[in-house]
């Protein structure tokens, strides 16, 4: 392995924590004897192009500094290549880092963990999900929460988290379930009237909502949480339980463990790692050992 590492940085992550976190992380890596170069990019597409170029040129590891969105972008560059990924998690949610037992909002500690892995036990092979050509590390979701994301993304004001809070209120006012056509593995197509369907490579999304609480990224299968037909009142009553993972015992909720599935529904967008993948239908499959992750528990 080369001693040159690539720091893949989102300077705006965590309201500027990305730019600040890159410096102590780089100091730790350089002090350990590694050469470090930084990739920024003019926008997401340009940053991904530069990260892929670094991987193609044989960087020893891609070290992503940012939140779940930036980590998701990094996955597109390293998945299936054998190049290890290090994560310096400084975003607002950090669901992927938490699932891996990595330090959160402590860039020096995260960098030390990466150094220990590079000089010691190496990288751990973990599973990723794939929807079409898009890789994801945490959860792919469709239904109520993707409608909220769609609405929030269309809104110009307000900015920040409040925009999505207002989008939730608006979607609750217009609440309806979605008729999905679902095929689990090689089984028959099923018609499922559902509030939402979440495909978990790991257990949480959205900054700690444990929608697929039992999911593991090293078991070769997804945990698919289906929230079936329920009323607006039931949804509001059950929703707080998502943060503890206790919603899974509710009668409206079922969990399926599968290696692949196809989701279809009219007018629904699939979101993975909080980013839009595209409109349904989508075929989603798990890819065991697709990522070499540094410092994972």
Largest sheet: 11 strands, antiparallel
The end-to-end span amounts to 22 Å
Count of beta strands? 15
How many structurally independent domains? 2
What's the CATH architecture name of the largest domain? Sandwich
Rg to the nearest angstrom? 19 Å
The string of secondary-structure elements, in order, is: EHEHEHEHHEEEHHEEEHEEEEE
Reported by name, the CATH topology of the largest domain is Tumour Suppressor Smad4
Structural class by sheet pairing and helices: alpha+beta
The amount of helix comes to 25-40%
- The whole-number mean of residue pLDDT values reads 92
CATH class of the largest domain: Mainly Beta
Residue runs with pLDDT of under 50 for 5 or more positions = none
Described by the principal axes of the CA atoms, the overall outline is globular
Beta-strand content? 25-35%
Q: How many helices does DSSP assign?
A: 8
Walkthrough of the structure:
- There is one protein chain.
- By secondary structure, the protein is of the alpha+beta class.
- It folds into 2 domains: 4-121, Rossmann fold, CATH 3.40.50.10330; 136-288, Tumour Suppressor Smad4.
- The protein contains 8 helices and 15 strands.
- Strands 5, 6, 7, 8, 9, 10, 11, 12, 13, 14 and 15 form an 11-stranded antiparallel sheet that branches. A 4-stranded parallel sheet has the order 2-1-3-4.
- Strand 5 (123-131) and strand 6 form a beta hairpin.
- Helix 2 packs across helix 3 (68-78) and helix 6 crosses helix 7.
- The mean pLDDT is 92.
- Its cofactor is Mg(2+).
- Residues 1-134 form the DAGKc domain.
- InterPro entries: ATP-NAD_kinase_N, Diacylglycerol_kinase_cat_dom, Lipid_Phosphate_FormReg, NAD/diacylglycerol_kinase_sf, YegS/DAGK_C.
- GO terms for molecular function: kinase activity.
